[in-house]
Amino acid sequence: MPPKPQPSIVRVIDLETTGNAPPAHAVVEIGWQDVALGEDGRWELMGEGGARFVNPGRPIPPITQAVHHILEEQVADAPFFHDLARPILDPWPRRVALAAHRASFEQQFCTASLTRGADWICTWKCALRLWPDSPSFSNQSLRYWRKPDGLIHERGLPAHRAFPDSYVTAHHLRDMLNEASVAQLVQWSKEPGLLPRVRYGPDRGKEWREIDNESLAKFLTDRDEDVRFTAQTELTRRRGGGAVGRDAADWLLL
Hints:
Elements: E1 9-17, E2 27-37, E3 43-53, H1 62-68, H2 72-75, H3 81-89, E4 95-100, H4 103-109, H5 112-115, E5 120-122, H6 123-130, H7 139-146, H8 162-177, H9 182-190, H10 213-219, H11 225-238, H12 248-253
Parallel strand pairs: 1-4, 4-5
Antiparallel strand pairs: 1-2, 2-3
Helix pairs in contact: 6-8, 7-8, 10-11
Keywords: Hydrolase
Enzyme class: hydrolase
GO biological process, one term: DNA metabolic process
């Protein structure tokens, strides 16, 4: 009897680094957790996941150590990122995409050459679309607001370490994949974030449909691309060409 085919997976990735801007900064830890498509058509977490220390080839600044608490002596004998990243990022042929919370950060370090040009799902951008009522969209805020089924509290700790964070993100991703297709999540992830509420100014906290046209116009030239994109989407809605905010997920899933 031929071996049973392995299911398709989306691999969640989380990195801890020396800072935010490569090549000046580098990876000190990589973690992962797989989400697999079951025979029943539902997505579920699969396997134990894992994490590896990485030698960044430079000092770890105290300001970033204060976030992840990784010591230089812990990574001194670890392999360099390019020596271990490719098999973690490219579990070929089963992987259909990679995912991360605010994936643009991971993508700076996990380049196309290391991922074999993988598509990425940004669970932050997708949460904006699917769960706009959340009071916040950070990985940990979504964890405690949503309380995903099956999430073992202790396994998701400590926060700001590569495996626990990828484990928590994987629960968000699982539920997203059971609401929308891989293709839809990838498409949303390629666009700027569609913000459910105004972030700042006199209209802070309001849904975009609640602000007047004069206020909306000011956001069309904002420095933040997510704000500009959301304002333009709301303007298009007002002109009869789309939806934004609470109704956006329903409209785009049709």
